[in-house]
Amino acid sequence: MTMDHSLLVLGGARSGKSRYAQARAEATGLDRCFIATAQAFDDEMRDRITRHQQDRDALWHTVEAPMALADAIRANAAPGRVLLIDCLTLWTSNLLLADRDIDAATDDLVAAIAAAPGPIILVANEVGLGIVPDNALARRFRDAAGLLNQRVAATVREVQFLAAGLPLTLKGAAPLAQPGATG
Predict the structure, then answer these.
(1) Lowest mean pLDDT among 2-11, 18-27, 45-54
(2) What's the fold here for domain 6-171?
(3) What is the pLDDT of residues 78-102, one digit of tens each?
(4) What's the DSSP call for residue 15?
(5) Which of 49, 80, 90, 158 is most exposed by smallest CB count within 10 Å?
């Protein structure tokens, strides 16, 4: 299945979004580059990163970009290569905790996505479906993540929302065969 456009995959925790995004990338048959935004600050996160790495075969090239995401896109996007960025939510958290200008970084990211000469698949959590957080930092994070998702969704050609492992097309055409679908 060829893919010549950008895709945002949204969903909650354990919704299947990363697995879906990886399957879509692998289905392209293109050279694969995984751009990771996670930072291993504790054992649980190290284990989570290791599990994600083990899910990818040797055909994947991995780039670590916990904050310089737009630069990583510009350096690695190419015709004949699909980029998989996982995930924008962790990237937002990294910027917030480092007291970086999230609006400027988002502008730079959106420009990099729009200018990319090959397909990009971006993964992000939808964090705005729950209750309003009880502290200012959590509300600031929720708002920043929601605004980032809106900006990226407006930029990409396709948006899929995953719930219980099932994709729902929010924007663009769904693929003819859903990667990982059973039945």
Answers:
(1) 45-54
(2) Rossmann fold (3.40.50)
(3) 999 999 999 999 999 999 999 999 9
(4) S
(5) 80
* Domains of the chain, residue spans: 6-171
CA distance 157 to 141: 25
Give the C-alpha separation, 151 to 156, whole Å.
9
Contact between 153 and 170 under an 8 Å Cβ cutoff? The reply is: yes
Between the alpha carbon of residue 93 and those of residues 3, 46, 99, the distances in Å are 29, 17, 10
Closest by CA to 66, choosing from 91, 44, 42, is 91
Any idea what DSSP says for residue 98? T
Beta strands in the chain (DSSP E): 6-11, 31-36, 60-64, 81-86, 120-125, 158-163, 166-171
| Residue 56: per-residue pLDDT | 72
- Cite the active site residues: 52
In angstroms, how far apart are the furthest CA atoms of the chain?
47
- Tokens 């630069």, residue located: 71
Judged on CB neighbours under 10 Å (0-12, 13-18, 19+), 136 is: exposed
